[in-house]
Amino acid sequence: MSLIVHKYGGTSMGSVERIQNVARRVAKWHKAGHQIVVVPSAMSGETNRLLALAKELHAQPDPRELDMIAATGEQVSVGLLAIALKAIGVDAVSYAGWQVPVRTDRAYTKARISSIDDARVRADLDAGRVVVITGFQGVDDVGNITTLGRGGSDTSAVAVAAALHADECLIYTDVDGVYTTDPRIVPEARRLERVTFEEMLEMASLGSKVLQIRSVEFAGKYKVKTRVLSSLTPPDIALDIEAESGTLITFEEDESMEQAVISGIAFNRDEAKITVANVPDRPGIAFQILGPIAEANIDVDMIIQNQSMNGTTDFSFTVHRNEYQKALEVLNNTVKQHIAAGAVTGDPKICKVSAVGIGMRSHVGIASLMFRTLSEEGINIQMISTSEIKISVVLEDKYMELAVRALHKAFGLDQAPNGAQ
Ligand code: ADP
Ligand code: ASP
Ligand code: MG
Fold first, then answer.
1. Is the CB of 8 under 6 A from ligand 2?
2. Which of 47, 133, 169, 316 could form a disulfide with 5 if both were Cys (CB 3.0 to 4.6 A apart)?
3. Distance (Å) from CA 173 to ligand 3 centroid
């Protein structure tokens, strides 16, 4: 007998029929003798609908109240799934985050899980019940409802698996695994049988929305065996086939792994670029520019500063698009008050495209192939950043899909690497 956590995303929970399919799949695992905890998301479109209602009333709604509203989507899902399970003879019980409790800090709309009490869940599991726990939500130390950021049910599921020392966390979604890039953008994208934890972490942080980055961080920290697989297969397919399907996140590079240098292309349109022109080139200037941005709690991603010409330089950085206006305001104030610099300008119409692969550690020429491919498509690179296993470029956002397709092809990702299927 194993303890297994299943997570089902919004599409998988998107209608009464789909919820019935989820219940059938869960029942199959339960009948095979496993203890099962299920973490569902809100039904597809529901979180967007709830947040849009709030925006109709106020342009910048209070984050505490937003969480109060957004958390209801998952509460409906757990109740419906528990009813669907009971309807087919499986004893089940649903819990909201506060009932477990799943404790978080108080960073409304982007809270972090601090602890999960396993006592109540374990008692139910020992009594033979399937336990259904809300994704996406938790409770702070004084009882306020919090949410974990968009896509946060992945994180709830992996965190629950870690807290219960589950044997495996199965993330059921509307694709049958992690692909070399988003198959909606590149139909030739291939499913990866395995992906290393480090690569998955980079891909998630660089925009591959198949897993929320914090879920990958949890999987790494607590060594949770995590697999991404399809919820859209017939629910009664053989359990042993289902158990081996999808993509496994591995913690070691083993010999049998696909030998591709690049594992995937990630992209996002979530950032905006800000530039200060004619900044005096002297010690402390980066701190003067970015210090107030950090104090305003705004995360900065890529940064570039040019070699100075005649004692001044241009300084550019990127922030999340949601924080773009706030960052522009902060920077305009800083420049007005403290720095004799030129104009502050911004561009929200950018995208970031990244190539990710642990093979980069041992191969040269990856950056030049990336830059050549983009130049052949006539795409101008605005910023570049690299780490040991990734190269990211900032481009004008209208070129995003073209760049992703061209790079996917140039790195041979549409073909199985040597020795792999
Ligand atoms: P869920 O509602 O199940 O959490 P999401 O929409 O959050 O599902 O994530 C699944 C989606 O992620 C897929 O439909 C796919 O379009 C997208 N995606 C982006 N990058 C990738 C990738 N590299 N591999 C697979 N899917 C990806
Ligand atoms: N329902 C939440 C969202 O739409 C959480 C999730 O689906 O993971 O972001
Ligand atoms: Mg998701």
1. no
2. 169
3. 8
